[in-house]
Structure formats: C-alpha cells, structure tokens
C-alpha cells in the first residue's frame, strides 16, 4: 500500500473510532460536541505512558483509553444534568477547558506539542478499529444497547419500564470516553506528535457530523458517515478547486433527502426484507 | 372484606393551584377488571400518572399490597408489579415491535450479565422467544421485526398493551386501550385482556368505549372534576344518578354512554 493510501487508511480508522465515541452517547440521546477534548486526553495520556513511562504501546493505548473513560465518567455527572442545546454547549465548553489545560502544561510540551516515540502502523490501527466497531455492534444488540435506544426515544417511558436512565446515560458517556481515548491514542502513535491545536472545535463538529449524517438509529450510521466524510473529499480531488463546494452541496442534499441520517432502521429492514423472512412465532396457549 | 391489591387513599393533586384530583379514595380488588371512567378532564389519566409515579402526589397514599408506593422511584414501581400503557401511543418509534416488547421485560433482567446479554446476536433467545410469543398471542405474530413507526395505529396500540403485559404485573393499567381500534380489533383486544385477567392479573382500564367496558369489566370507578362520584359494580353504574348527570348533565337519560 502506498504511503498516501496508508495515510488515508489511518485517518479513516481514526475517524471511525472517534465517530463511535460520539455515537455511543448519541444513541442514548446525548449530543457531544466535545469529542476533541476526550480525544486530546487519550492522545496525551497514552503518549505520555508509552514515551515518558516507557510502557509498551498497546498497554499505553489501553491505559490512555481508561484514563479518558475515567475523565468521561467524572464529567458525565455535571454534563448529564443539562439537556439539549445546553448539553451541546457544556460538552463544547469541556473541550475548550481541556484545550486550555494542555496548552499550559509544560509536562506535555505546552503549545509546542508533545513528541511520541512509539509508532502504530496499520497492523495496529486496523485491528483496533475493527475491535471498536465489533464492540459497538455487540453493545447495541445487548439489553444495555436496548436501554440506550429506549432512553434516546422516550426517557420517561423507558424509566417507567424499569430502565435506570441515569446509569444508562453515564455508562454510554463513559464508554464513549473510552472509545475517544482509543482514537486519541491512535492519533498520537500514528502521527508521533501531539499538538493541542489538532484537537479543536472543528474536529468535534466534523465528528458529530459523521454521526448525524450517517444516522444515530443503528451502529452502521457512524461507520458510513465516517467513511463518506473521509473518502468523498479524496474522490472529489479530480476537481481540485471545486471539491469542497461539491462536498458541501452533497452534505446539504443528504440532510434534505435523509434528515434522519443515511442509514435508518427502516432502510436496513428494507434491505434485509427480501433475504430474511422470519416465520411468525407459534401461538402458545396460556 | 374484599382483598384489595391497589388502594388509592385520600389522594389529592394540584396543578398550578388547580385541584385536579380531590381527596379520591378507591380500592381495586385483586384479580378484578376495574374500569376508571368519567367525562373528559375528569382526572382519569392523572390517576394513572399518580399510581405509576409520573406525578408525585400532594396528599394521600397509594398502597400496593398494603405497602405505600407513593414515594417509590418511578423505575422501581414496575418491579413491584405496576405496569401501564398510554392514552397517546408511547412506543419507541425507532425500535422494532419485538424490541419494544423486550423493553417490557426489562424489570426481569437487571443484572450486569443480563444487561450485556446479546439479544440480537442469539436469534430466538429466551427473551426474544417470549416476546415473539406474546406478540403472536395478541395476533401480532407477523410484525416482530418491523420498526413500529411504520406500523398502523391499531397495531401500535396493541403492541403497547403487549409491552405492558409482558412485565407480568400485579396491576395492569391500560389508558384507553381500545381508542382508534376497529370493531374486530377491539373484540380481539377484549379477548386478549380476558386471557390476561384469567392468569390472575388485575386490570385497571381507562376507557370511553362503554360497550368495551361493559363487556370486559366487573367493577367501575367514576370520576368527575377530580372527585369520585361512583364506585361499585359495572352492572349498577348506568343506574347511578350522579353518573348520569356527570355524563349528560340531565336526569332524563337512558344510557350513560
């Protein structure tokens, strides 16, 4: 694989992982505009653990993810007290605080950035990404996943049926933090340099767009959204000066045509329909 | 003395100074099919919301099997045996019919292990099988995998009833279950509820379709302007003067419906 395509592939993996970090809370009804903050924590912490503490890279990635998950867990309690646009603002504010902290921390190189020694190539990044995708797909088929989607659709009714909405949302937010930490670790060990400027509001907005354009109803949404947003600008390179104009128009068209996202439950059912015809369950006498 | 499973004792509720439930007391006998009726705005759905914990009560007590559940958190009431449906459909629109019904099983599967049990990856697992059978029993066997937002109103209404039933409640509260159903669907629903009742589940039903009430219920509680005006046998409600006046505002009536 050429260096160009290896680079695209690494970015694609990073985008997919970070998209899932936003999808998990979104699947339980929480919009996170602070993905960049969590990614930054994952990048700096895993980089520090592998470079300064000398831990093996995979262990550093794991620990970086756990550190980010812990921060997400702690921060979820005040953030989950907010709703709707206020939650969006709260997560955005969190990311800004993270940026402000790292830019002043000399131990992480402050504004100059932090060099990371160990290199993660595609042999590390791709399996990690596949692992995240499989984990999220698995999670969404579990009762916890069902609870998340129920809380997303109608929190009061989910509560009436015994779902602990707060537990579900905190869990989703924390797992999102862990996944964002993996994304940050991938970034740190693939680019070997962590600069806080890379984790700005634009990253948070783009990642949220991957999820919203891809669709929050199924675990396919963030995957399709991230693939679309990563590969489409590359595919449009044939028209160098117009590619971002065309890309912008495509996004607007998608929002008009498919306001619930590219992939919806109904669409998946239509695709599955001709292939899977389930026999109705037998009527059992009570 | 009748064996009361649910007791609503001297309960009052105010909204912005307006008293919508005024010192209402009634008992629901174990295994009975009790209708809660009254004109629009009488406070029937508010009573359901007070029992299920959607609204906190201002005064009085709600007893389930003699225990005060008035201060119990909303999500714990289903564990104690209270389950309900809604006047306006409140299914999860992006979930399939079987997933909506599986939500009704949630109170039976709250351990960490069962939270991480892959319902979707093990086809026809215990939970899915039970939910599909419950749907089939309600005549909805062809819909389990369908996203509910795409289903007809009558089907959604019945799925909501199945979701409430599957939690195996002591008291199943149904808020206008027959609203919007055609004649055949209403009759199918009545037969289904009779089956549920025969299993020992107590039914508390808010319903405007008096024919449905007469055929299903044995006990009736009537509310008007937040006050109880009648409590007794279904066969006696039509002869009650206060009930006639509440519905028609005149003494010269033949049928409260």
Give a short overview.
The complex is a heterodimer of chains A (286) and B (257). Chain A has twelve helices and two strands, in the order H-H-H-H-E-H-H-H-H-E-H-H-H-H.
Write the layout of secondary structure elements.
The complex is a heterodimer of chains A (286) and B (257).
Chain A: H1 3-27, H2 35-51, H3 57-79, H4 84-102, E1 114-115, H5 122-141, H6 143-153, H7 155-160, H8 165-191, E2 193-194, H9 201-214, H10 220-235, H11 243-257, H12 265-272
Helix pairs in contact in A: 1-5, 1-8, 1-9, 1-10, 2-3, 2-4, 2-8, 3-8, 6-8, 9-10
Chain B: E1 4-15, E2 18-29, E3 33-37, H1 44-52, E4 59-64, E5 67-68, H2 74-80, E6 82-84, H3 97-104, H4 112-115, H5 126-137, H6 153-165, E7 171-175, H7 183-198, E8 202-206, H8 210-216, E9 219-224, E10 227-233, H9 234-237, H10 241-248
Helix pairs in contact in B: 3-5, 3-6
How would you describe this structure to a colleague?
- The complex is a heterodimer of chains A (286) and B (257).
- By secondary structure, chain A is mostly helical.
- Chain A is built from 12 helices and 2 strands; from the N terminus they run ααααβααααβαααα.
- Chain A has a domain at 3-200.
- Chain A has a two-stranded antiparallel ribbon.
- In chain A, α1 (3-27) packs parallel to α5, α2 (35-51) packs across α8 and α9 crosses α10.
- The longest helix of chain A is centred in the middle third of the chain and has 27 residues, at 165-191.
- Chain A is globular, with a radius of gyration of 20 Å.
- The termini of chain A are far apart.
- The mean pLDDT of chain A is 92.
- In chain B, a hairpin with a 2-residue loop joins β9 and β10.
- With 257 residues, chain B is an alpha/beta fold.
- A 6-stranded mixed β-sheet of chain B has the order 6-7-8-3-9-10, with helices on both faces. In chain B, strands 2-1-4-5 form a 4-stranded antiparallel β-sheet, covered by helices on one side.
- Helix content of chain B is 34%, strand content 25%.
- Classes of the chains: A mainly alpha (286), B alpha/beta (257).
- Chains A and B meet through α5, α6, α7 and α12 of A and α2, α3 and α5 of B.
């Amino acid at each position: 694989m050429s260096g160009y395509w290896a680079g695209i592939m690494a970015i694609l993996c990073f985008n997919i992982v970070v998209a899932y970090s936003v999808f998990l809370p979104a699947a339980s009804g929480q919009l996170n505009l602070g993905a960049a903050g969590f990614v930054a924590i994952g990048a700096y912490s895993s980089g520090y653990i592998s470079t300064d503490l000398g831990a093996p890279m995979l262990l550093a990635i794991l620990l970086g993810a756990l550190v980010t998950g812990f921060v997400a867990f702690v921060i979820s309690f005040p953030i989950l007290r907010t709703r709707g646009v206020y939650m969006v603002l709260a997560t955005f504010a969190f990311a800004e605080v993270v940026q402000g902290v790292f830019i002043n921390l000399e131990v992480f190189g402050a504004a100059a950035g932090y060099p990371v020694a160990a290199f993660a190539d595609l042999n590390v990044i791709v399996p990690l990404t596949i692992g995240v995708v499989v984990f999220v797909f698995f999670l969404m088929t579990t009762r916890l996943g069902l609870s998340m989607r129920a809380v997303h659709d109608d929190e009061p009714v989910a509560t009436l049926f015994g779902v602990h909405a707060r537990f579900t949302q905190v869990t989703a937010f924390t797992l999102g933090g862990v996944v964002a930490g993996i994304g940050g670790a991938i970034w740190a060990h693939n680019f070997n340099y962590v600069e806080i400027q890379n984790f700005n509001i634009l990253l948070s907005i783009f990642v949220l767009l991957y999820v919203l354009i891809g669709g929050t109803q199924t675990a396919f949404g963030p995957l399709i959204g991230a693939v679309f947003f990563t590969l489409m600008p590359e595919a449009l390179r044939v028209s160098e000066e117009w590619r971002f104009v065309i890309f912008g128009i495509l996004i607007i068209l998608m929002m008009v045509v498919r306001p619930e996202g590219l992939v919806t439950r109904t669409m998946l059912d239509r695709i599955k329909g001709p292939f899977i015809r389930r026999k109705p369950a037998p009527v059992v006498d009570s | 003395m009748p064996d009361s499973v649910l007791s609503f004792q001297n309960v009052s509720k105010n909204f912005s100074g307006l008293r919508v439930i005024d010192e209402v007391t009634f008992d629901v006998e174990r295994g009975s099919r009790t209708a809660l009726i009254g004109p629009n705005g009488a406070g029937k759905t508010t009573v359901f919301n007070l029992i299920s914990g959607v609204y906190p009560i201002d005064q009085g007590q709600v007893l389930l099997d003699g225990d005060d559940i008035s201060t119990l958190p909303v999500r714990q009431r289903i564990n104690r045996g209270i389950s309900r449906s809604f006047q306006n459909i409140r299914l999860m629109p992006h979930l399939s019919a079987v997933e909506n019904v599986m939500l009704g099983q949630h109170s039976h599967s709250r351990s960490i292990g069962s939270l991480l049990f892959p319902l979707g990856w093990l086809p026809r697992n215990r939970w899915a099988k039970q939910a599909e059978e419950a749907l089939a029993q309600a005549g909805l066997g062809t819909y389990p995998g369908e996203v509910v937002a795409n289903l007809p109103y009558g089907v959604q209404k019945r799925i909501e009833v199945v979701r409430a039933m599957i939690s195996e409640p002591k008291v199943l509260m149904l808020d206008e279950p027959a609203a919007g159903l055609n004649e055949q669907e209403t009759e199918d629903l009545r037969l289904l509820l009779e089956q549920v009742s025969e299993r020992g589940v107590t039914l508390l039903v808010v319903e405007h379709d008096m024919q449905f009430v007469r055929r299903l219920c044995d006990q009736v509680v009537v509310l008007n302007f937040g006050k109880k005006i009648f409590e007794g046998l279904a066969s006696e409600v039509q002869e009650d003067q206060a009930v006639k006046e509440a519905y028609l505002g005149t003494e010269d009536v033949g049928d409260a419906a």
